[in-house]
Amino acid sequence: MKQWKEITHYAGFDWARDHHAVVIVNGQGEIVADFEFKHSLGGWKGFGQKTAAWPDLAVAIETNQGAAVDQLLQGGYTVYPVNPVASESYRKRKAPSGTKTDHVDAWGLADALRMDGHSWKTLQPMDPLTEQLRLLCRDEVSLIEQRTVLINKLQQALVEYYPAALEAFEDWSCPFTWDFIIAFPTPQGLVQAGQRRWQKFLHLHKLWRPETVQKRLGIFAQADQFKASEPITKAKSQLALSLCKLLRTLDQQLDQYRKQIEALFKEHPDHDLFGSLPGAKEVLGPRLLAAIGNAPQRYGTHQVLQCFAGTAPVSYQSGQISKAQMRWACDKFLRHTVHLWADCFRKATLWGQTYYKKKREQGMSHACALRCLGQRLLKILFKMLTDKKPYDGELHARNQQKHGSWVLNLLNENPSSKPCQ
Q1: Exposed e or buried b for every residue in 137-151, given b needs 16+ CB within 10 A?
Q2: Domain for residue 257, yes or no?
Q3: Could you tell me the pLDDT band of residue 281, with boundaries at 50, 70 and 90?
Q4: H helix or E strand, kind and range, residue 266
Q5: Residue 276 forms part of a structural domain
Q6: Phi, psi of 186 (to 5 degrees)
Q7: Cβ(58)–Cβ(2) below 8 Å
Q8: DSSP β-bridge partners for residue 60
Q9: What was the pLDDT predicted at 300?
Q10: Are residues 249 and 289 part of one domain?
Q11: Going by fewer Cβ within 10 Å, which terminus of the chain is more open, N or C?
Q12: Which SS3 state, helix, strand or coil, does residue 44 take?
């Protein structure tokens, strides 16, 4: 990658699924190239040939991931990712009338890079192992979201024709509930199956509990007394059966993803560092590593990392008005991961629970309190990444003592408590 002082030409790259628009300007802002090309082997070869005339070229693009970014990095280009909100402002600077075309978008990015790029950060590619882990974790979350959609559709179908099933089982993310529908797809079929098959199902799936078994057996026996009409039952039972089979297949694929993610995480040099984080364990540890990476220099300071994660608020000040707002422009995957980690951390440590409880007492919502806790945790994690040292609860406690932490003062009110257990 080129240093900023070495760059002589600036390209704005407006990407799309099947084609891309490019505008290149020189140091004086004059357009020296304006073209489009297809996202194909021939298109990218043509892009390389056209840009060969400017070896000291930097590229501004409105994303930091995807196929176009991957091709640019493989080509050795110096890439500057731009936030979509900022990109819109750069376009309006070129076309205040509201005109929007691929040419104007690319031109706005190119000239913004020429004027303001000296303060931007180049896109630093992750090492291959971290990059693979990042993609796997993001795809795993995407599949989990799809599973949630299917579960919601299944529950809605059961509302329409099989209320007894919803009454018997509460958590429909458990695979045994899908097996129940596959084994007994209709209320009539459930009643006809008889008590011996009901008992066999409950024993097979380890659901035989003295406190719940009689209630469930009673529900099964009366399942056909409150039911839908025959047309609805036939149609919706087919839908429910299909959804359960899809969920079963999807769950098997998620198991494969989890095994591969755990294997890569164990191979990673920073496994012990991220694995030492309280509350992270084997699920959130890989996701945090995948979302943040193992190179703190990509961010520069912990404040930049906090902004990327969306835990840092956005300040608004005008005249006598001064307030803070939630930061929406951030890495959504990272924000969601930090939110889950903060929730697990406050359950795993007394310090985290005390911090969270105090924020709640101050009137903050659950999400806001977790965001504040995540802000503190990211500062700790950034220091760990910089020093390449695992989490040390005793060191954390000593630092709190040194800086006079208000959390430590609250903990000291209870002599039997330990700050970071």
Answers
A1: beebbeeeeebeebb
A2: yes
A3: confident
A4: helix 230-267
A5: yes
A6: -135, 155
A7: yes
A8: 12, 80
A9: 87
A10: no
A11: C
A12: helix
